[in-house]
């Protein structure tokens, strides 16, 4: 892989780690173990992700996340716990993918990887918090399943076609920003509506005037 492909894969993995950290590690490790993701010589240290122990832990984490993410409010608690874990995991994945002989690239990859994972994590956590207030009982599971499918599909594309990874990373980043901005506006409108409704509500006659 050339530098563009490496940066694309690093960006894609970091952003997807903000959605599904354990699935991202598991898929990357499996791809390396079976040779689906060829690595340059300076990245051979990443083969640690193909270790049976790492794969086993990642598989357990993927399974736990799969079920926790399907239950309303449990998913928000899970997201809260992983508010540090996902960005850190995304940063370390990006850090491991760049040339360790260049400190500038190492720092850049760590910051961008962590920032990308935090961005996608923020979009995911905010979306799920909004979905959780919906009275419809199945929306949470539907959204979570859609995230599972999207993460798996985008991981497969980034690993199988590294030249496409940079486009995937850019699109994921743009989508995360759009989602965060849209949800912030929605929450602001809901807050304003509630404030107006409460302000227009008649005062309780039993309460003394202030």
UniProtKB/TrEMBL annotation:
Ranges where the DUF4126 domain occurs: 9-180
Keyword annotations: Membrane, Transmembrane, Transmembrane helix
Bilayer-spanning residue ranges: 21-39, 45-68, 154-183
InterPro entries hit by this protein: DUF4126 (IPR025196)
Descriptive protein name: DUF4126 domain-containing protein
Coiled-coil regions listed: none
Domain of life of the source: Bacteria
Species in which this protein is naturally found: Sphingopyxis panaciterrulae
């Amino acid at each position: 892989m050339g530098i563009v492909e490496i940066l694309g894969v690093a960006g894609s993995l970091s952003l997807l780690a903000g959605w599904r950290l354990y699935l991202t590690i598991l898929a990357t490790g499996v791809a390396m173990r079976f040779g689906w993701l060829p690595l340059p010589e300076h990245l051979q240290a990443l083969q640690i992700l193909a270790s049976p122990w790492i794969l086993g832990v990642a598989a357990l984490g993927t399974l736990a996340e799969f079920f926790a993410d399907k239950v309303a409010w449990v998913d928000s608690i899970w997201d809260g716990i992983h508010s540090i874990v996902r960005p850190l995991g995304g940063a370390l994945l990006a850090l491991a993918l760049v040339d360790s002989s260049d400190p500038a690239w190492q720092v850049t990859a760590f910051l961008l990887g962590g920032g990308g994972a935090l961005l996608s994590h923020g979009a995911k956590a905010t979306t799920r918090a909004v979905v959780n207030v919906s009275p419809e009982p199945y929306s949470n599971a539907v959204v979570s399943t859609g995230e599972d499918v999207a993460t798996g599909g985008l991981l497969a594309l980034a690993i199988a076609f590294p030249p496409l990874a940079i486009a995937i990373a850019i699109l994921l980043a743009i989508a995360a920003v759009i989602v965060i901005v849209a949800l912030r506006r929605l929450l602001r409108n809901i807050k304003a509506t509630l404030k107006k409704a409460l302000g227009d509500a008649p005062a309780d006659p039993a309460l003394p005037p202030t």
